[in-house]
Structure formats: structure tokens, C-alpha cells
Amino acid sequence: MSTIADNIGLVSERIRAAAHAVQRDESSIHLLAVSKTKPAQAVREAYAAGMCDFGENYLQEALGKQAELNDLPLSWHFIGPIQSNKTRAIAENFAWVHSVDRLKIAQRLSEQRPADLPPLNICIQVNVSGEASKSGCTPADLPALAAAISALPRLKLRGLMAIPEPTEDRAEQDAAFATVRDLQASLNLGLDTLSMGMSHDLESAIAQGATWVRIGTALFGARDYGQP
Ligand SMILES: *Cc1c(COP(=O)(O)O)cnc(C)c1O
User: Fold this and answer.
1) Mutate to test the pocket of ligand 1, among 4, 198, 220 (most ligand atoms within 8 A of CB)
2) How far is the CA of 115 from the centre of ligand 1 (A)?
3) What is the reported pTM?
4) Cys staple from 154: which of 20, 32, 113, 227, with CB 3.0 to 4.6 Å?
5) Is the distance from CB of 99 to CB of 106 less than 8 angstroms?
6) Tens digits of per-residue pLDDT, 1-46?
């Protein structure tokens, strides 16, 4: 059985190979360990093997793990759908939010970000798969949303996040990630972040410019939603 440390080595090697294939500097690609449904002990093991950025989708689960792990200098990223009544706890307990897709949520996060913390890093989630996905703003709504969010005082807009429909067709996968990259460039806001690529498609995402890949299964093994 492979350990989390073994898996981090394998994923790092995939990132390195994918970066070299397109002449990118591998240090421009950051690995976010997606620990949703996994116990605090798994996060501790990953930290011991060199990881410090962790992604969570479910607020209550994340807060529990943060409390158990408050002896470690971890950086937490919220990557799941956000309800209005969860924004305060997210603003108080995370360094990044990758899944902002409407202005009302962004305004609340800005208002609720504690004054003693640095601005909250934000990615706008954009839906490039049309009706196949319900989360994410439409490409048409993106420019106005990005302009409004970049004006909020306690947020720092960093870039875009996307979860394109999975496909076995590499050209199709590349085209979806390229759309996200082009949308980011067309905003002309000097954004430095593209959060895209998961366990099954990180090579394609890196080829199209990903700066954060969000990896769960390939690091921690398959998730069991029956026993969270
Ligand atoms: C679960 C999740 C991931 C990780 O997916 P894997 O396929 O397990 O690597 C990445 N991003 C988001 C938004 C997720 O919800």
C-alpha cells in the first residue's frame, strides 16, 4: 500500500513532467492538497511530507480539522459551494477562497474579513461547461463580477477557478482549460492565478497555464462519502 508521502512524490513527479513538457518552470505550479472527507491525521501526515496548503469543501468538517491541527502552520483554502450564512466563518478561518461565483458572497466575505488578517485571496469560479455544471459564473457575467470584486477592500482577487466536465479526449480537455486561461487574460486585471486541474486532468491543466492544481484522490486515495 502506498503512503501519503509516496503519493506526494508521484504527484510532484507528474507536475514536474507536465511542466517540462510545455517548458514551464515547475515552481510556478502549486499543489493544493484536497483533504475533504479525510481525517486530520491524513493532513498531519501530508504536512510531515512537506505539504502546507489544504483544500476543503465543507465548512463544518474543515473547522473541526482546523481545531485539531492548530499546532501546525497550515494554509487553508475553501473550494466548495458557499451559502451566505457560511461567509463569516470562511472569512475568519481561510487564507484563500477558490469558489466565489457571485457578488453578494464576495461582499459579505470582504465585510466579514477580520481586520487583523491579510486580505482574503479570491478566485472566481467560472463555468466553462455550460449546463453540465451549476456552479460558477457564466463567461458573460465574468468581466463585471471581476471588476466589482477587485474593488472590494478586504479581498485580493487573484484569478479564476474552473472544473471543466471530465472527458477522455485530451484535445477537448485542453480546449476547456484554454478557455479559462483566455478568459483570465481578457480581463486585463493582472491576475496571477489559475486554479484548475484535479487528479485525473492535471497534465492538461498545467499545459494550459494552471498555477494551482487541486489534488485529492491521487494524494489521499478514493473518498468514501458513506462515512465522512
Ligand atoms: C474534490 C475536489 C477536488 C479534488 O478532486 P480529485 O479528483 O480527488 O483530485 C478538486 N477541486 C474541487 C473543487 C473539489 O471539490
Assistant:
1) 198
2) 31
3) 0.96
4) 113
5) no
6) 789 999 999 999 999 999 999 999 999 999 999 999 999 999 999 9
